[in-house]
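User: Second chain of the day. Same drill as before.
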Amino acid sequence: MKIFIMRHGEAEHYASSDAERELTQHGRKASLAVARACAGKGFAQFDKVLVSPYIRAQQTWQEISSQFSSDQVETCDDITPYGDSEQVADYVSALVDTHNYQSVLIVSHLPLVGYLTSEFVTDMVPPMFPTSGLICIEYSLEKLSGEVLFNIHP
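Assistant: Same format as last time:
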């Protein structure tokens, strides 16, 4: 099965709280470009999409949903910047196992996206994600490990 992890697009530097920072125009365009590139590789349908409740992640999903589709989109409070990567990886693995999902997209933040990647690709140091960056992991539930298939950067 495939796990896609995407960092939100470029956001404003200032807002009344971190959770309220909105995407810039550049962030919107870059996220859409990455989504188009991913769809161009034949990946545009997801069994499940998990999106952080922070405004910039929600706006990223709004932008990229024109290229991607899913019948199941969930706002997930556990995937904010300092979420627990081990807990999130366990949750995703349980979802996949229970529902037999073949593809899951996670739209989240640094540093979680890096740590989450290393939870699924066990021999990998947590990578730095640029804004709008996306990684695709081929994941085996039986082995509880995966390998990177591709990265897309704006």
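The longest strand covers residues 145-152.

User: Great, on to the next one.
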